[in-house]
Amino acid sequence: MEENIKNEEEQQEKLEKLKKRHDRRNKRQENKEEQEKKDEMIKALSENVQELQNKLLYQQAEFANYKRRREEETQNMLKYKNFDFALEIISIVDSLERALNVPSERMSLDVQKYLEGFKIMYNNLKNILNKFEVCEIDCLNKKFDHNTSQALMTEKRDGVEEGMVIEVLQKGYMIKDKLLRAALVKVSE
């Protein structure tokens, strides 16, 4: 019986060893599965972090572009803030020039005195335009430039090269480096 007990104890011991080995094997398998899950989670989180970093860089670039565009718009707005004002003033200058181009010998003395006042106003307005960097486009007797002039008529003239501005029908103006109003011209054929 003692032998049976001993045998039984040995078998019990073997069984426990097998059980422990099996538990260790199961634990290793569980650890391996857990590690695989952790690795997958780390990979997914790394991809997510990379995607978020890319989005952040894109948003930073977008914001930098937006900021640059706004600064350019603000600078242009400040640079050309007097555009509409200058456009209104040049129509007054045009009217005064037409009045001043009337031959003075046809006028009475009183009208000639008014004309002197018009000349003063005209000069003052021209000075104001110059102050705001509004200048006339000088195109008479020059090659026609479609960027600053608009051809309304053509005329054949002897001794004049084709495509030359031979008459300015309405003056054109620039404000700084921007076209305020195109010159209306007659061009040679």
Describe the structure concisely.
This protein has 189 residues and is of the alpha+beta class. It has helices at residues 2-79, 83-100, 109-131, and strands spanning 134-136, 149-155, 165-170, 173-175, 178-181, 183-188.
Low-confidence stretches: none
Number of helices: 3
Number of domains: 2
Overall 3D form:
rod-shaped
Q: In words, what does this structure look like?
A:
This protein is 63% helix and 15% strand. The protein is α+β, with helices and mostly antiparallel strands. The chain has two domains: 1-79; 80-188, Nucleotide Exchange Factor Grpe, Chain A, domain 2 (Roll). Strands 1-4-5 form a three-stranded antiparallel beta sheet. Strands 2-6-3 form a three-stranded mixed beta sheet, with no helix packed on it. Strand 4 and strand 5 form a beta hairpin. Helix 2 (83-100) runs antiparallel to helix 3 (109-131). The protein is rod-shaped and about 155 Å long. The termini are far apart.
Which keywords apply here?
189 residues; alpha+beta; Nucleotide Exchange Factor Grpe, Chain A, domain 2; 2 domains; 15% strand; rod-shaped
Give the arrangement of secondary structure elements:
Blueprint: H1 2-79, H2 83-100, H3 109-131, E1 134-136, E2 149-155, E3 165-170, E4 173-175, E5 178-181, E6 183-188
Parallel strand pairs: 2-6
Antiparallel strand pairs: 1-4, 3-6, 4-5
Helix pairs in contact: 2-3
